[in-house]
## 1
Amino acid sequence: MKFDRDVGLSAWCSFGTGGKAKWFCRAANAEEVSEAIEFASNRCDGAFAVIGAGSNIVISDQGFDGLVILLAGGDVSVGQDGLMVAAGGVVWDDAVSLACHAGFFGLERMSGIPGSVGAAPVQNIAAYGQALSDVFVSAEVVHPSGDVETWGSDRFSFSYRSSSVKTAPRPPVVTSVRLALLDSLALGSGGLYRDIEIALGGTDRESLSPGRLRETTLGVRRQKHLTWVGVDPAARHKNAGSFFVSPFVPMDLAVEVTSAAVGQQRAEEFIGWYSKTDSKPGLVKVSAAHVLLACGFSNGDRWGTVGLSPFHVLALTNFGGATSEELLGVAELIERRAREHLGIELEAEPRIMGDSLVRPETLTRLVSSYIPASGRKPDWVG
């Protein structure tokens, strides 16, 4: 394996920000990841971090003082029984495309999600009523010690947009995944999401193929600029898709938040539909996008070179020349507003590599540079 020094990481992050890695290497399988971990143990006091497509990560402007392992490449296959085996470095949408072309359901509404296969179970990625955990069988993982194991669903402890690997202090590296794809369309209690229903129009649900649902999903995501599939690289927005995870709140608060977005008459109906597939005792899931709207933010708001996408309020975006500190600073301002105005704690979905400190002077500068899309600063802006 080749280990390089002082490698810039911004090219490996969808935000286009971040400093340098002290050491950098590529790995495609468990054996190479174990070798890389041994290198980190000998040369970096055991400090290592793993990146895939870099689409769900914010890399510190100071970089990473250790070894960064780029997990990329490998094979993906689908058997006649629908069992998919995919290396962790495979591009997620390539795996989805293969599944749909083979005639299997289970992944089609997760089309267009940027990222790699290895990150999918870590995040328990989900979209439009489907989640990775719905079809998950097992994964090959490499521990920080270098040991290799096979984990089933019980070891991952999947929850909404999370897993035990995501929350572990020293998580293992997922180097391959096995998924049990489906012969027929499974809608579950939530049915098809409204965006997909609208795009399909009057299409008979019995006649829907995995390929048709995949293309419909990609079309919806392109309208929101939440996918790179089929998009000219020059036109890609520098973001990580939805930056915040939808929170779980008491019903009365959910109605208040949702009413601000869809109106009071539709609020309870929307909440019932939106939280059908995910719930917690005494709490319902509320759209993180609705939380931002209820806080007074909107599509196109800007803080200098950082802003909310004109196409999707949850897509925190680098519009050119932003730093990771500025991105995290805007996220902190949004979180503070949600906490003070609604009592809601928003959770960022991307993981942070390296130092996440935002200096007070940076926050002050961002507040003063805030320009709402409406052109008028609200009273609550300090």
## 2
Amino acid sequence: MKSSSQSSAAWALRLNFQCKRTAVLLQRVLFVFAFGFFHCSCRADEAELKLHTFQEPHMGTMITIRAWAGTEQGQIDELTLSVRKAYDRIAALEQIFSDYRRDSEVSKLASAPSEEPIPVGTELFDLFQKSRELYDNTAGAFDITLGPLIRQWRLSRKNHRLPSKESFDRARARSGFHLVVLNAENQTILKKVDGMIFDFGGIGKGYAADAALKILREEGYPRSLVAVSGDIALGDPPPGKKLWRVGIESLQLVEDSSDLQTISIANASVSTSGDTQQYVAIEGKRYSHILDPETGLGLTERIGVSVIAPNTTTSDSFATAVSILGEKEGLKFIENKRGIECQIVTLRDGRETIIRTDGFIEDSQLEAKKE
């Protein structure tokens, strides 16, 4: 676990459009950078706080934890122990949800015989229930049972070759929530066919971020954040500030961080899903890493989605769902959902088009109103 302390008190997160279903370390690590110093008007005890940064690899990415705490060695040691608990919690969840680990709970469920109710742990059942609800609400756009199709698409991306109709049909026959029976009373899961694979890439990281931030709060560090790939859980704001500032990349890469769009939030979560870097060109056509459940191939429309929500489980899964639903249906899905805001960026002929819900307000809009 790498750690460091930083004394700047005005901070922002750079939220990258990263692959949410990758098994390798991210090529570009999500990071927090300073927008500049400010004169702290906080209480004396708050003025002595410093921002401490920790990084550790889990879930196929580098996970960043930042927390405000004291600067004395004893205080730093106590914080380090608390952060260790947060990372251990993430590691424990990875052992439950990861389809890359053969000994994980979800992998054991996948390899269990079909037509038999399999008892599972509370957390795995909870995530299945949340995923099923979102599957129903999005007409199947969000679907954790698409593991066979997702693995097939990964192989196609690697080999730069589209899957055959026969292989697609075989994968499709083992995918779909209609093949899963959840029994809440007995906390069991039954698969109707063998060979199913469950992929939590569109919700698991958000779930882990929520769990880690909860531990930091319980340990006495409410001014904290947890960044897991494109999913960020934010606690109380920095001392002397009302909000955290979060930077969001567009679909077109920018080199200067000052060009990033920014939003300001606290005690909430934000997730971004898109394909700025994770894509492949096959037979002259560009495909995203994000799977289209209808075709079994990557999306061909350029889209980036940012969702603000009360928790990261929701922001992560909703960002994934909207990416698949597309601009029109995605916005319709988000509208009228209390506490949820969304921005959708599409790229056509090299030009970005941005639509937002009314409550998704970037900092430049707020600054313009002040003027």
